[in-house]
Structure formats: C-alpha cells, structure tokens
Amino acid sequence: MYIITIITITILIPNVQLARPTLKLTFNPDEKYMSWHGQVEIQCELLNPTRAEDSAQLWHLDLKNGKRTPISRTLLASPSDDAAEIFKNNKNRRYEYVRKNYIRIRSLQMEDSAKYECNCPDCEEQLKGVTKDLYVMKLSEATWNFDQGWPLHENTKTIIKCQSNGFYPYIGHKILRDNKEMTNDGKSSLSNTNPFPQNFLWEATITPTAEWHNTTLLCSITQGNQEQTVSKTLDVLFTPHFLTCAERQYVDPRKDQSSIECSYRGNPQPKLTWLRQSDQKLLTSDNGITIDIKDEQKGKYRSIVTFDRAKLITIPLLPTNKTSEENYYQQLLNNGFIVKLTVNNNDKGTRLINIVRDASQIQAKFINSSTTISLSTISLAFLLILHIIYR
C-alpha cells in the first residue's frame, strides 16, 4: 500500500512542475481583419499562476503615437486628460468593461485599430508578454484616371493612375492588361503620415498604339481580407489603314456564290466602300451583291462582298466596247473594283482589285516576287564579295 502511494506521488510531482504559468491573449472572434461596425471581445489571462496574488495586465498600444495604456474600469468609465483619444471619446460606451482584463468593443471603427499586449509585471517568474494586432477594416473603391483625358490618342504619352483613398489596411495590389500582369511597369506609393487611413496610388507612363485599343486594364487593391477592383476598357483613337486587301483576288464565275474581301482597322471606325473600276459607281447590297462588315474587335474590321451568280447574270450588260462578255456578272468581274477607306469623307487609302479566274495566278505572282527578291539578294552579295577581293 505504501509502495503504491509513493509511486503515485512520484509520478504526479513532475506533472505539477510542468504546469508552468503562461499568458494568454484572445480575440473573439479570432479574425485577422475585423469588419467595420462589427464586435470583438479582448481578454488577457494568466494561466497556472505561481502565486495566488499574481495577476495579468491588459495594455492598449496606440498605433499613431505608440502610447501604452493599461486597461482598467476607471479608464473606460472616466478617462484622465492624458488618456488616449479613443478612450476619451467613449461617450457612447462602445468600449465596455466586462471584468478585469476583459473588454468588449461594439460597432468597430477604423480608429479602434491598435496593438494589445498581455503581460504580468508583478509575477514572481518573469514571463514574456503576448501581443496581438487589432485591424478594423475600412474599404474604399479604386478608380482609374488618365491625365491626357479621354479617349486616348495613338502615340501620345499619357500617365495612367489607379488610386484608392481613405481605407485601411493596405495588403497588396496587382495591375493587369488583358489578364497579363503589368504591375512592375509602373510605380506605387502609400501614404505613411499616419497608420490610418491610407491612400494608395499606382501610376505608369504609356504610349498607346492601335494594339492598346479595346484592351482592358484591371486594378486590384487588397484592403484587409477584401479586394477592391476596377476595370477600364481603353478607347484609343488611331489612324485608319488597310490590313489585308490583295490586289489580285480569285473568283470562280461558275460557282453559285463567290466572295472577295478586305480587312482594315481604325478608330473611330472608318468607312470602307466598294466601287466598279469601269465607272466608279458605288456597289451596294442589292441585285445579287451582299456586303457584310464584320467587327473583329480591337478596331479591326472585315468587309466581305458576296456575289450571287443566278441574280447577277440576269442583269443587262453595261454599254462597252467589249463584245466577248456573256453577261453582267462576267463583265463586273472583268472590270475589277476600287476599294476606298475614308473617315468623315477624308481619304485614308485606296486599293485596286483585279479578279483572276485561276487561283494559281495569285500564287504565281507571289512566287515571281519572291524569286525577284532572292535574285537581287544573291547579286548584291556577289558584288560585295568582289569588292572585298579587289580592295
């Protein structure tokens, strides 16, 4: 019996010695970022005190001036003149004393953000204090600004800015253009005069081209655990021009339907018109001809002329010296077309299109041009070698 008792006491003594005093600081709810107008309870505890008279102490540390204030019933009920402003403005009793080292804050404001510390200054055993940051979020929308006004102009430098003012706390930001990150293309700044509120600015100098038109900028600023995002689709004015408008295009006059086309771009949207080469008369969508304009986005367009053979062969021939043409459709194709690009009746480009009935004629022209370029290159290289030899 005595042996069992001695063994039991021997086992329990080390366990009692292991239960050393510790400090515990808790927020309820235990969230990194508190919501505006929410509520939080803050408690400081000393667990397993060595002496009964040992007691923990809860402290408030002001983020703006670093002032350290012990939390007490008197502080919340009748603060002194040198108390922190947040306690002197506690007239509506948002700060509630629950019990010693235990407070409740209702209707949280950004100004309630602070650092709290739990320590035991009079403990026999020196304990390291525990600290936690209380962040109360205040959100603010992000906006885009452009120093050269709107819309943007091609090849004109402009400063673009994303900013958000009067929020807390700043965590990070990201800038994208059509889902491609461009954060490092600019510079950012954050006001640090006071810990809160904060003002954020990101800016970059760009020289927009036609490729920037209809692209989308996105600015995302992380404020606490929330993201404030704003997007802006760019409107860039740029000079109209042809993209592809081949001077020789293939049409099979035996097919029921055939088409020719030209692609172009510009902002504002230019006007593309088709005319007959023979008399420069405007082609319109009627009597066997259909003209479609397809918007291919970002200021690119495609104009497609579709011929309806069955309808076009019924139209009377135009007066001409040529007698070999069998019908109006054949005559129309033989004469070819003029394509004009205009903006507000101002000419921005013209193309002459001739129709070929053999697709190989288009390829042959390309091959001949490539051969000519190759022969010219070889000849130039040969002359250069001779020059080096005879120097």
* Strand segment tally: 26
The outline comes out as rod-shaped
What do we call the CATH homologous superfamily of the largest domain? Immunoglobulins
N-to-C span: 119 Å
Give the neighbour order of strands across the main sheet. 2-9-8-4-5
Rg value? 40 Å
CATH class of the largest domain, anyone? Mainly Beta
Query: How large a portion of the residues is in β-strands, by DSSP E?
Result: 35-45%
Signal peptide: 1-19
Organism: Adineta steineri
Membrane topology: Single-pass type I membrane protein
InterPro entries: Cell_adhesion_signaling, Ig-like_dom, Ig-like_dom_sf, Ig-like_fold
What does this structure look like?
It is built from 6 helices and 26 strands. With about 400 residues, the protein is an alpha+beta fold. The protein folds into 3 domains: about 20-135, Immunoglobulin-like; about 140-235, Immunoglobulin-like; about 240-310 and about 350-360, Immunoglobulin-like, CATH 2.60.40.10. The strands form 6 sheets. A 5-stranded mixed beta sheet has the order 2-9-8-4-5, with no helix packed on it. It is rod-shaped. Keywords: Disulfide bond, Glycoprotein, Immunoglobulin domain, Membrane, Signal, Transmembrane, Transmembrane helix. It is a single-pass type I membrane protein.
